[in-house]
Amino acid sequence: MTGRIAGSRIVYARTTLTAASDEIRRLEYAYSNGAVLYLNGRPVAFAMNPGGLRGLGVMARAGDAVYLPLRRGRNELVFAVIQLTGGWAFSARLEPSSGTETLPAIAQVLNGRAEVVTYRGAPAVKLVPLPAAEDRDEEMLALIDGPDFHNGTIQLDVAGAPRAGVPPDSRGFIGVSVRTGARGEWSEVFYLRPTNGRTEDQLRRNHSVQYQSGPDYSWHRLRDEHPGAYESYADMEAGAWTGMRIEVEGTTAKLYVNGASQPCLVVKDLKQGDRAGRIALWAHVTTDAYFGPISVAPR
Amino acid sequence: MPPSFRCLTTGLAFLLLGNTPPAAAAPPSRTVPLTPDAWTATDSIRFVSHLGRPALYIDRGVALAREAAMENGVLELDVAATEATNFLGVAFRAASRRFSNVVFLRPGASGTEEAVQYGPAFNSVGVAWQVYHGEGANAVAELPRDRWIHVRLELDGPIARLFLDRAAAPTLVVPRVVASGGAGLGVWAGAFGQGAYFSNIRYTAAPASHAASPEPTSPPGTIQHWEISSPVEAAQFTPEKLPDLGGLTWEPVRVEPQGFVLLNRYREAPVGGVPRDSTGAVMVD
How does residue B214 score in pLDDT terms, banded at 50, 70 and 90? Predict the structure, then answer.
């Protein structure tokens, strides 16, 4: 049984759920005439109207529920809403979270400004390039408030896609500088090239995640001098909330994407050496750049 | 229109036409002619004599009165079901033939809670009856076939009141008509055929009374932000696996005050019934 119903039509609906930590939360939902629910890309429920439409088949406003195993940060919830006849609708309500989290407070932005917006259903910091920088090959760096970071784990969700009208080789470059000079004069940046995540061009796929260190170790210098050593592949989708976790210890940093148990990139010679610095959000000026709450666990 | 301006235009008409002015306070009642030029229908429409009266018949779908426009006021008509009629009703606040509100009767459910049904019919002639049901959308009524039933629909801002057969009390009160962005009026006979007769159709526009009708609220925790995709047909649907979502076209949608997303507002639903096997069960492959 495939669950396909002859003559039906389907619309997908998506939203973002935010969790302060890995947690299970109850989602009540209603639908007409049928629904399949997916959490972070995996099916979690298949539902048709009570009585399989043999009776009234009306949309009860509460009743069906599913326990969602949310991961810390951003989660994508998708409904496939199956329509046969008459009303075509759905709703969902999520029980409150046990914890709370807040967006990073931005102290200063180089080449841009920060706005607080809603993106795909979740609060986000958006970095917008300054007019003087937006048509140039510049990077935005948003220093966040807080103590210097030395060793430990940084987790955040980012969503990056090329802005409309930017050159075709823009990739939605977005990431984070785990240690940064107080005025942004140096940085240790791990970033994504989201449009490379789903391309069929294998060379571009190999360039999905990147390390670079300002001001002297740009991505192209590292690629020239050590091909393939500072970049790698991880699955990601342009514009979608993407989880980044960076574990930093001394001169070593490991990047994990979208909750992976193993790192997609290991850098054992951070170019600024074993030193503490500010944490900063990072994006190229060609990127529509969104950042969710950030959590920092120093060690 | 402010009252003083209404008097001025009435007086002007009197001067120009030399007629006796109508009573100042009574808004004009208009009758919709039962002639082909006065109607625009989604399906076949016939003008016939039925149960001793001139009538129009539609087999299915919607027929709108071309010249009629009434956002608030009273619509009155007589409706008659045959032995075969599935559904019959009125379309109102129509922006087009396929974007209106509908109140309809189910003669086959006479005497039950399903006898009367209200709901929006967006991007379709079909009504979103599964979504709008229960109090404020359904009501009990006796619905005999083969005789004229008088229908009076009062539209008063967010509120619609349906009176049947000259009853003093409304059979159905809809507390909050879904905004459909139009003022068209017409008759309705469902999406599936076996139509009905309509006669004696007239309406009287009137200002809304601004009667209080509290905005519904959605339950706590309701997810308010959604984006929806372009439609996917059943043959391309893979329930067990999400497609590449980036390959679909997305648009943000708003949540209705009650907390649900009414997809009919944005997407055309498929036409037709539910495929069933010989036991009546829905066929799922």
Answer: confident
Flag if B263 and A8 touch (Cβ within 8 Å): no
Residue B103 lies in a domain: yes
For residue B15, the distance in angstroms to the closest alpha carbon of chain A comes to: 52
Nearest to B223 by CA among B245, B250, B255: B255
Q: Which of B128, B230, B281 sits opposite A52 (nearest CB)?
A: B281
* CB-CB neighbours of A98 under 10 Å: 10
Q: What is the pTM of this model?
A: 0.70
- Residue A61: per-residue pLDDT: 66
How far is residue A151's CA from residue A178's CA, in Å, rounded to a whole number? 9
> Which CATH number characterizes residue B77's domain?
2.60.120.560
A64 contacts chain B (CB < 8 A): no
Chain A: give the shortest CA distance to residue B255, in Å: 8
Distance from CA of A40 to the nearest CA of B (A): 10
Instruction: Report the number of distinct structural domains present in chain B.
Output: 1
Pull the structure tokens for residue B169. 């009390």
Tens digit of each residue's pLDDT (9 = 90 or more) over A101-128: 678 889 999 999 999 998 988 889 999 9
- The reply to whether residue B245 touches residue A30, judged by beta carbons under 8 angstroms, is no
pLDDT (tens digit per residue) in B234-270 = 889 999 999 999 889 999 999 999 899 999 999 999 8
- Output the six-digit token pair for A244: 């980044």
- Are the Cβ atoms of A198 and B246 closer than 8 angstroms? yes
Give DSSP secondary structure letters for B196-215. EEEEEEEEEE--------PP
Chain A's closest residue to B284, CA to CA, is A5
Residue of A nearest to B280 (CA): A54
In our burial notation (b when 16+ CB lie closer than 10 A, e otherwise), range A196-217 reads bbbeeeeebbebbbbbbbbeeb
pLDDT at B1: 38
Enumerate the residues of chain B whose CB falls inside 8 A of the CB of residue A122. Answer: 225
A86 touches chain B (CB under 8 A): yes
Residue A100 pLDDT > 90, yes or no?
no
ipTM reported for the complex, 2 dp: 0.84
Q: Which domains does chain A have, with CATH numbers?
A: 9-94 (2.60.120.260), 106-298 (2.60.120.560)
Could you tell me which residues are beta bridge partners of residue B188?
Answer: B62, B89
For the stretch A41-64, pLDDT in tens is 999 999 887 444 444 567 876 678
Nearest chain A residue to B264, by CA = A88
User: Residue B31: inside a domain, yes or no?
Assistant: yes
The pLDDT of residue B114 is 93
